[in-house]
Specification:
The structure is a homodimer. With about 775 residues, chain A is an alpha+beta fold. Chain A has 3 domains: about 180 residues, Aldehyde Oxidoreductase, domain 3; about 325 residues, Aldehyde Oxidoreductase, domain 4; about 140 residues, Aldehyde oxidase/xanthine dehydrogenase, molybdopterin binding domain (Aldehyde Oxidoreductase, domain 4, 2-Layer Sandwich), CATH 3.30.365. Chain A is built from 19 helices and 30 strands. In chain A, helix 10 packs parallel to helix 18. The longest helix of chain A has 28 residues. The first copy, chain A, is globular, with a radius of gyration of 27 Å. At the A-B interface, helix 1, strand 20 and strand 25 of A face helix 1, strand 20 and strand 25 of B. Chains A, B: This is Xanthine dehydrogenase family protein molybdopterin-binding subunit. Chains A, B: It comes from Variovorax ginsengisoli. Chains A, B: InterPro entries: Ald_Oxase/Xan_DH_a/b, Ald_Oxase/Xan_DH_a/b_sf, Ald_Oxase/xanthine_DH-like, AldOxase/xan_DH_MoCoBD1, AldOxase/xan_DH_MoCoBD2, AldOxase/xan_DH_Mopterin-bd_sf.
Chain lengths: ~775, ~775
């Protein structure tokens, strides 16, 4: 009897299927592509945060040998592009609204010539007064950043329950204001596109993107072309973090240059350009008021947010919406009220960023809970657990919690860090003080916001060698979407992982897919892959039944064959069955399409509805050391626990979780976009100080498997949640160490020292 | 009320959908592709028809700057490749069997260096005696071209009815022997491939091919790779005519070079190489014996064929099979006997060619009928019509004739040429004599020979702009497959032709398809396109029913909308419906896959079976002028009538028919591969004299629409049949003009003059 060789890798540590190509330097990122006859693009950007373009003279640039085109706003489509608001031109016309806005674009025979040409474009600006802060923007006298409108881009108000009555019933009410800053996505690969015209005049782009479907939709709208006349290939993508969704103009400008010149055009941001062009996270000023009973039960919550979208709103309204309400669902909140205002300023646009608005509010909320816990003489862990929503419950906003491992995450994280002992221990002597902090978080896995579909389609083709092609439009931006799809299909058909091949997303050939956002790919793409793989399996079994002369119920897929369960020697290879599927009367290639859509609902105009098929949770505990002489904060230890439902590939989850932790440490302690007079002052990796290896301890993490009923094998979105608790855990640990509460991120040495001075002053008084 | 705007182009003259790209020089043929880091390949070929390779020294070639690899047989897989017989190495090892056989291959930084390197490869040959004719090959003493085998590559024998009894009952029995020669396919684009390795190590090739599916299968077998590790893209293909199916080694060598170097490799035949590498048509010596009644009824037919496949048999066995039996089905043949023998010689291989064996036998048969008609005092037209099989009948080999326009084709052609009057008229005076000739032909539309599937699959995607992508693996090699698919889908959905886009064949993304052969694409691909388009239409109508609040039966697709038949103002655009199909609960992209397979049967081992879903017919009449002083034959007029069932695109059919006529004129009068001592003596377009415009009259043609019950809208394969009657029509016209019967193609001036001398000798005697 043949021994069962189970090929499944589910739950095992699996190197990513495209890792080898990347490690060997063979993966083709958009900037690596070389197309015959290719021109090189470069973009001239406004040096002023606000100015009138009086005149542009491109003649000197055009006269440079090798320059093929110089485009200005006059050459770009008149239509505006944008997400909520169509308010942005591909190239500015008449006025520029932030320092860095795209004013002109060049295509030339080399990148050097293209950049030289930028210097020869004569732009006469009339500088105008710039609105650089939300406070200025909200001044009633302030002129509109956009003509004919005030500076409120978007406003959200909702109340559920009775917040005032809740506060009245509370034993403790605490209100404080927190400010968060913009973080640059910091992917290794800047935005890059190669755009070309097909022989039939269609526009084809290879680009670094989180969604080929959305990239095509936006290119079509912005360039005023039918979507069918555009083909978008996802090139290998070196990180996205929200920045490569729909908010940058890179592929629009490349497409415009290709269309104008009729030649392929490569447009790759250098790092400064990418700092200027990429949406950074939305800075929010959050006033949080929380009412609790003496026992720590939350009875009322009020949130006021003023968020800054910069000059163009992009996805910032959606981000702010998340800040305003997502964290309400983590606890059993009976009464909530939110008022959030998004304002325009003459600064580079902000928008989608890993965590999508969760980081901002969870910094406030987790800081707040620690503060109130101390006032109530409680452990903040106890408050989190007391209030934590449970599986099977429906949150205040209608979210149906199918699974939650929040309490387990908290326990795992605090146990790992030595919570109780270290909280009780002395904070150290001398200049260096140690403290521990924790924070809890939740996130969506999928989100019914785009159109009213939150599904995915996967096509599975079983080739005549028994190996399988998987077509999906869901983007792998490094997080492992391709590996996940391969694992699912290989598991369902019981074939080796390397017998699967995921064909990269291409709008001509891939099924429509929303793309990589809202931690949706594993749950939506994974479920669709299960549907498709099982359809393929059914076809294989049906065909095998005729060959093995046994009913389907007596057959199984095992180790690349279909065999009789009770008589495993009696089998057909998948290769043989796939060949038979084609090469017979009535045959056709074995190719099936499986779709899955979340059984969720779009939230209504009262912000009510179960928007995601599953919700992920995480908790983090850290230990920090604060140098009270220098103000320097060092993270000594970190343990983040991720409730991903089921870890399909723990290696990938730990990798993503570690990345999230580093990005959170950066946001909390080091990274801050510095604008001086509205101009980016630190748009490079030397001055914009992301956390480097010396700033990061050996990261630790754990996985909680809460087994979501809607997830593929129980899985939910993994590791995006893990970026959320980092900053408040660090802030809480700093407080634990030195008693200084910092509500204004990042936690710089200056703020630490100022806090210590203030504390000393209070003691001295 | 909206007026009905019917978008269908069926039956209209439509420029090919890819014509503009070709005319503007933008279409990318394989040789046009430039891939970054691409090397250039070149192939060293044997100068001897038969030799032992004593030694190969590649060191001097490898030492040339820019040379990256020099491969010989020792570097090629040990496995043999081929169709019926696996008998050929990618690069010869030990022995070469024809002058032109691939011995070594080079990859270098430029094509010039690669070709220089060929001169530096030192090959020591020991020349061996070569078998250059079938007669030598069949000598019992002859050594085998392939070791351990005699020189009979394949043999076919069958008898149906009682041929001897038939001949005994005949009033007239005539036997004669006809010889036909090899014709080079003569496409404008020689064979070309770019092969590269994907980052994950898969082999990807862009190649000029008639079938990506078959190219992949053969690459996989010859390079010993799983098919899933190979991706074949069809580059724009500049003609195939059977030559770009599975018989040349171009993409195998390119693939081998790419695999060995790890770099992209471009390998483009120059014209001489293409003459050596392409399969030319199979030369056959046909002895035909026909018995007729006094009234011209065919009562018995016996065929003996000796065919030459050259050194490797490729598809020659299938070609000879067609010669041996296909024409039996055109008439009501009661008794037939065939014996066909395919032999190896040390000459360049022969194989598939437009008409696929039909040209050879129909030259004999039509010549024969003219001869016997004269002997019986009948019009050959009358004999054809008397014997012509009718619709609804089953032929002697089991072919079920769903439709035939043969008689109408004959009438159309002879009427156009002025048959009766010109037959009766004086043949001219002086040196220039005129005559008319006609011939009739049949062909398959599809052929159940490969595996047991003769179907096709088409995927139709309706995009959110209401435009449609069509995925098919069927190859457009210039004949118009893409245009046909576009027409069918546009008709079914009633959208403009330019709202369709046919995605070029690609084994990773296209449905499996047999490819362009046996005039199968319109009937198989067209029917599959109907199935898929109607599936898409059903989905659109169902969705529209919910929007328009009418049952599906009351709706129709019209002019890019779905509308209420009785209230045409009430409508939804396809764009709106396609968007709704995705962006709703339970949505997915509107993408359907439709398959169609012929309801036919593989012929049994007695060569019996209805192998094709439809059979196409054609007839041609020509007028020639023979210069009796120079022997030169000039075609003055030609009318070919094509029974294509239904002309989906008459412009394309006339284009193809004209091409077929020119190729037939070339074969009949001008083209002949000249081997001298087994070596190609005229492998270039100066010496291999294809018919040029001065040799071709203003071609005329007509279409007969017999409306086949199995065809899409009645259509059958068009215009391949049209190559078949040309040569015998010309031979018959020459006979009519000067009384010289030439049975040995081509009809050269020398043969005409020799015939005239012989005639004069007979008269003088």
């Amino acid at each position: 009897m043949t021994s069962r060789i189970n090929q499944s890798t589910l739950g095992q540590d699996v190197p990513q299927v495209n890792a080898r190509a990347k490690v060997l330097g063979r993966a083709q990122y958009a900037g690596d592509l070389k197309v015959a006859g290719m021109l090189h693009g470069a973009v001239l950007r406004s040096p002023y945060p606000h100015a009138r373009i009086v005149a542009i003279d491109t003649s000197a640039a055009l006269a440079l040998p090798g320059v093929k085109a110089v485009l200005t706003g006059a050459d770009a489509p008149r239509v505006m592009w944008g997400v909520h608001h169509k308010e942005r031109r591909i190239l500015a016309e008449g006025v520029v609204r932030f320092a860095g806005e795209e004013v002109a674009a060049v295509a030339a025979a080399s990148e050097e010539i293209a950049r030289d040409a930028l210097d020869h474009i004569q732009v006469e600006y009339e500088e105008l007064p710039a609105i650089l802060t939300p406070e200025e923007a909200l001044d009633e006298e302030a002129p509109g950043v956009h003509p004919g409108r005030n500076n409120v881009s978007h406003e959200i108000r909702f109340e559920r329950g009775d917040a005032d009555a809740g506060f009245a019933s509370a034993d403790l009410v605490h209100e404080a204001t927190y400010t968060t800053h913009a973080q640059y996505p910091g992917y290794l690969e800047p935005m890059a596109t190669v755009a070309a015209l097909e022989p039939n005049g269609r526009l084809v782009v290879w680009t670094s993107t989180q969604s080929v479907t959305q990239a095509r939709l936006r290119l079509a709208a912005a360039l005023e072309m039918p979507i069918s006349r555009i083909r978008v290939h996802q090139a290998t993508t070196g990180g996205g973090f929200g920045g490569k969704l729909v908010e940058d103009a890179n592929n629009l400008i490349a497409g415009l240059l290709a269309r104008k010149t009729g030649k392929p055009v490569r447009l790759v941001n250098n790092r400064l350009e990418d700092f200027l062009a990429a949406p950074s996270s939305v800075p929010e000023r959050i006033t949080l008021k929380l009412g609790m009973t003496r026992a720590g039960l939350i009875v009322a919550k009020e949130v006021r947010i003023v968020a800054d979208c910069g000059a163009y709103s992009g996805l910032a309204a959606e981000v702010m919406h998340v800040s305003a309400m997502r964290s309400d669902n983590m606890h059993r909140n009976p009464n909530v009220r939110s008022h959030a205002t998004l304002v325009y300023t003459h600064t580079p646009p902000h928008g989608a960023f890993r965590g999508f608005g969760g980081s901002q509010m969870l910094f406030a909320l987790n800081s707040h809970i620690h503060t109130m816990a101390e006032q109530l003489g409680l452990d903040p862990v106890a408050i989190h657990k007391l209030n934590a929503i449970g599986a099977g419950e429906t949150s205040i906003h209608g979210w149906q919690i199918g699974s939650t491992g929040l309490k387990e995450c908290i326990d795992q994280a605090i146990d790992a860090i030595g919570w109780e002992a270290k909280r009780a221990a002395p904070k150290g002597t001398g200049a260096r003080r140690r403290g521990v902090g924790m924070a809890a978080a939740m996130h969506v896995s999928g989100n019914r916001t785009i159109g009213n579909w939150d599904g995915s389609t996967v096509v599975v083709k079983v080739n005549e060698d028994g190996r399988v092609f998987i077509h999906s439009g869901e983007a792998d931006m490094g997080q492992g979407a391709m590996t996940m799809l391969s694992q699912v299909v290989a598991h369902e058909l019981d074939i080796p992982l390397d017998h699967t091949h995921v064909v990269p997303p291409d709008t001509d050939t891939s099924p429509i897919a929303i793309g990589s956002l809202a931690s949706r790919v594993t749950i939506a793409g994974g479920n669709a892959a299960i549907v498709a793989a099982r359809m393929a399996r059914d076809k294989l079994l049906a065909l095998a039944a005729t060959q093995l002369e046994r009913p389907v119920e007596q057959l199984e897929c095992a180790n690349g064959t279909v065999r009789v369960i009770a008589d495993p020697e009696r089998s057909c290879t998948l290769a043989m069955l796939a060949r038979l599927h084609v090469w017979r009367h009535g045959g056709e290639g074995l190719q099936v399409s499986g779709s899955w859509d979340a059984r969720t609902q779009m939230h209504d105009d009262q912000v009510y509805g179960n928007i995601a098929p599953a919700y992920s949770f995480a908790a983090q505990a850290v230990e920090v050391e604060v140098d009270t002489e220098t103000g320097q904060v060092t993270v000594l230890d970190s343990f983040v626990s991720d409730d991903c439902g089921k870890a399909l590939n723990p290696l990938a989850i730990h990798g993503q979780t570690n990345g999230a932790t580093v990005q959170a440490i950066g946001w909390a302690l080091y990274e801050q976009l510095q604008l001086e007079g509205g101009r980016m002052a630190n748009g490079n990796f030397a001055d914009y100080t992301m956390a480097t290896s010396d700033a990061v301890p050996m990261l630790r993490g754990g996985i909680v498997e809460s087994n979501d009923p809607n997830g593929p094998y129980g899985a939910k979105g993994a590791s995006e949640t893990a970026i959320l608790p980092g900053a408040p855990a660090i802030a809480n640990a700093v407080y634990d160490a030195i008693g200084v509460r910092i509500r204004d991120l990042p936690i710089t040495p200056e703020k630490v020292l100022a806090g210590l001075r203030e504390l000393q002053g209070a003691r001295d008084a």
